[in-house]
Amino acid sequence: MSEQRKYPRYSCNIKVNFEFFEGDPETIDTETAAPSPGDGFILDMSKGGLFIVSNTRVGINQPIRLEFSTKTEKYHLEGTIVRTGLLKHNPSEVARRFAKKKVKGDSYIAIEFTTPLDELSEKDL
């Protein structure tokens, strides 16, 4: 299977805090709606998004705000949850790959950034 991603992905292990929203994704106003908190670890990142392992349950197509630091920068980003699920007994390649790692969390959250990062390299992580 050929790579379909727009940007290269880099493995990492970065603590992340996030706020996610619940409800109808078409009508959520992130300026006035009360978000729910969550945290986890970023295990995979690109200029366009990232993959988190967490114990927090979220819904797809929901807005999310992220806060984390790399070796070179502190980020406050917004995005959309594009996939989520449990790691254990999940047949997807991504879930199987991360389920083998010793991670603190039983579910994954794949996020697409609202605006892609200008710069990101493996040495930054």
The shape, in one word, is globular
User: Under CATH, the topology is which?
Assistant: Thrombin, subunit H
The domain count comes to: 1
Which blocks of ≥5 consecutive residues have pLDDT under 50? Answer: none
C-alpha end-to-end distance: 27 Å
CATH architecture: Beta Barrel
Helix share, percent: under 10%
What do we call the CATH homologous superfamily? predicted glycosyltransferase like domains
- Total count of helical runs of at least 4 residues: 1
The total beta strand count reads 6
Largest sheet descriptor: 6 strands, antiparallel, barrel
**Secondary-structure element string:** EEEEEHE
Q: Strand order of the main beta sheet, please?
A: 1-2-3-6-5-4
CATH class: Mainly Beta
Report the mean per-residue pLDDT as an integer. Answer: 88
Strand content: 35-45%
**SS content category:** mainly beta
In angstroms, what is the radius of gyration? 14 Å
Q: How would you portray this structure in words?
A:
By secondary structure, this protein is mainly β. It has one helix at residues 93-99, and strands at 10-20, 36-45, 49-54, 63-69, 74-86, 107-113. It has one domain (13-27, 35-117): Beta Barrel (Thrombin, subunit H). It has a 6-stranded antiparallel barrel with strand order 1-2-3-6-5-4. The longest helix has 7 residues, at 93-99. The chain is globular and about 35 Å long. The model has no long low-confidence stretch (mean pLDDT 88).
Question: How is the topology of this model organized?
Answer:
Layout (H helix, E strand, L loop, with lengths): L9 E11 L15 E10 L3 E6 L8 E7 L4 E13 L6 H7 L7 E7 L12
Antiparallel strand pairs: 1-2, 1-4, 2-3, 3-6, 4-5, 5-6
